[in-house]
Every structure is written in structure tokens, then in C-alpha cells.
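Can't paste images in this forum, so I'm doing it all in text. The chain is below; anyone willing to post the predicted C-alpha cells underneath?
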Amino acid sequence: MNSMLSRVRAVAETLAGAPDPATKRSAIIDIGSNSVRLVVYDGPVRLPFILFNEKVMAGLGASLAKTGQIEEAAMERGLRALARFAHLCRDMKVTDVSCVATAAVRDAGNGPDFIARVQALGLTVRLLTGAQEAIGAGHGVLSGIPGADGIVGDLGGGSLELARVRAGKVEQTASLPLGVLRLPDIRAKGPGHLERQVRKMLDKAGWRPERGLPLYMVGGSWRTLARFDMQLTHFPLPVVHQYEMPAERAEQLTRIVSHVGRSRLKQIPAITGSRVPTLPDAAALLSVIVRQLGTSRLVASAYGLREGLLYEALPDAVRAQDPLLVAAEAEGEAQARFAGHGDRIERWIAPLFLEDGSAWRRIRRAACLLADVGWRANPDFRAERGVEIALHSNWVGISAAERAMLAQALYSHFGGGTGTPAGIEGLAAPEALHRAALWGLAIRLAQRLSGGMEGPLDESRLDHEDGRLVLTTGGGDDALLGEPVERRLRHLAQAMKIDHRMVVGA
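Text version of the structure:
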């Protein structure tokens, strides 16, 4: 089977010693300045899905600016959470647990004591330097947005990490003591003080300015700001990853957040109560960073340090795999009636769409890989199921417009016709949605002709010849052709505004 997932498996199995399968259960325990979190992953190593995710707001860095120490109460909260996390990892039979600590533990005078108490729980703690944290955040963004070219800004509780990413690599980095737990004291020193401090810190870090680049926003507080903006603008897609804002929106959000009371912010479903106190400071810092770096636009990233640590451990050949296609194939294979069929469909319909550029081809391929995900659903709701999978599944490496195209393709494939499903009209251009509808109808024809099997597709071909859509079967066998197949061929031809015919080959 010539498939993306098969190639990932092959790469993994041929590594020196082949110690790891193509899928494995792993976990990251992230000991941050504000929160302590466990995330357990399973599935394809290039893009594992989240099996379990739990966060405790321990506040290890809450008093760091004043005392230089982790408060005992915060330490106990953190240790209690970490003991639970260690127990869960054992019960879940996680084969690879990576426990990392960042700015609060790194900077606290009693940080070594905290690490010793954590290791007594059976966890090995890796204390990251600021540079390592920045590199991890950069790799996280590259994992979820492979074409990222700009500045990654990871705002945590104790620090702000910056990383220049380009061509799949992390270049210069900087770690600045500007976490959301430190910002109140800095801003309390008067208007303009934060701006001056940021400028001095960038100079001291030797940051080489490169204006006009996007800023990829990482960290809970900045992602919460992006979700707040999605609410304000009535953005139709509730997915924060790769949500974009113009750079000037940072200043506008700063003013809006400063005039909205905490009680009103807590009423917004997309904003968790624990993030509300940090939003004014997070917005103010974002505005300053935008001005200092000359940012061109803002892009939210759901992927950061934890995903970056997983990505760093992968061999180059696996890193190079397209995360969208790996995830789509894993999902499609898990739900399909017959293995490998989506890959064959993509090759069969490709001759109709030779003018598609590379960006559209990968979305078309994803739709083909997901061609069988709706077969268990009630027939009356398969089209809606396709839209739901496209819009709400945890895909990465895909923009909002591309999600809309994927939704349209699956909607048309599962019987929705060429109409546009509600909610995606404003996400992609009409011509893009029409193209995706044609993909869906072509996939629908392939499924009807083949019954989900590979043989009928191998024995036939679909072409656009002399202004006509032609379905040809080989070997003089017309048994595959019938009224149901002709009807779907006709629907596709009508949507393409051309004639059609079926031919029995010699």
C-alpha cells in the first residue's frame, strides 16, 4: 500500500536498531511557572493524538519576583499534581515519560529542592535553559505549521521565549524575564516602563531585528486573547490553531481588555477563569512586542513547547512528513471498510484536476484519505458528519480556508450536493469551495463504481477528453457500469458543465 502512514511505519521500522514502532504512547509533564500539566499522546509519532490532558494551576512562579523563591503552598500544589501524574502514567502504561521544568524552577533559589522532591516521586526532571525552551517552542510551531516563517513568541508564567523559524529550522533565540507573573510589577512602575524594559532586554539578548515578519503566538494567555478576538469578530470556526489577526489588533485588544471587567470576561465561554487575571498584562506585552519587532500579522499556534519536544526527538525523515496527511490517513484507516482505498481514490480522480496547485492537491488528498469516515453514520446525516470531521477534528498544518475546502469536499462526497454547508461561506473563496465540491463528487463516483474496493479503480479510468467527462472500463468488461454509476457520473459532469459518456475498453 503506497500510503503516507505506511511510509511513516517503514521509516520508523528501519531506524538503527528499530527500537520504536510507528506508534507509541508517550507523555510530557510540563512544570511551568503558572501551571503544571500532563499530556499523554498516542498514535502516529509524527502527529500523535492527545489521549489525556490535565492541568493544575500551581503558581510556582507567583512570588518569584518578590522573594526569589517558590512558595511552600505552591510547591505542595505542584507536588500533589505531579504525584498524581506519575501514578496515571504508570496506570496508562506510558512507555516514554519526559518531565521538563522551565523558568520558575530554573530561577528560584529553592528550585533544586523542588526538583529533588519531584524526583523522589519517580520522575526524572530535565531543567531547560531559556535557549532550550525557545528552541522547543520554535520546533512546536514548526511541527503544527510546517511552513512557518517568522518569529515564535512563547509567553509563559515566568518568561517570554522568542525564536526565529524559517525553512523548517530554528535560528536565533532569546529568553526574556517577561512572563505574565512578572508583568504586573513591571507595569506598576508607570506608563512606558514595559516598553523601555522590552527594548533593553532585546538589546541585551543581542536580538537581531528583522521587521515585517509574522508573530506566532504560543502560550495560554496569548491563545486566550486569540479566542477572545474570535468571539468579538464572530469568527465561524471555533479552532484557535492558525487563527490570524492583523498586527494592529494587538493594540485594539489591549484597550478592549482594559475596559472589560473580569466578571464579564469570565462569562465568555472561550475564556477560562484562571486566564482572566493575566489577560490585561498579556495584551499589553503583545502590543509592545508587535511594535518592537515590527510584526506584520499575528498567528495563534496551539502547538508549543510540549509538541516541540516530541518533534525534536523524531528523525528527519519522519519530521518531513506532512502532519495533515499523516493524521487524515490515520483517521481514515481507523474508520475505513477497506485499507488503503483513499490513496487509490486520489490517484484515480487526479487526472480531472491537473491544474490544481500543490496547496489544493494536499487538501484534495486529505479528502480522499477521509473518504470512508462517514459510512457508519445514519445516511441522512453523513454529509453533516463530513463537515464536522473537517471543521472540528484536531488537524494541524491547515488554514481556516483549507478546512472549509475539506468540509465542502466531504459534504459533497457524502451526498450534500454542490451546495455550500452553513457556516463555511465566509472562510474560503467561492471558486475554492466550488473546486472542492467537484472533488467531493468525483470521490463519490469512485466509491459508487468500486464499492470501496481497489480492483474496479485499477480496471477503469476517469478522464477529461475533448470537453467531455469519460469513464472507461478496461478489458471489454461492462459489468461495473450501471445506472447508479451513470447517475453519479452525470452529476459530476453537470457540476463541471460538460457532457459525459461511459466507454467499455478493448
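The chain has three domains: 4-127, 131-307, 323-504. The CA atoms of residues 409 and 440 lie 4 Å apart.
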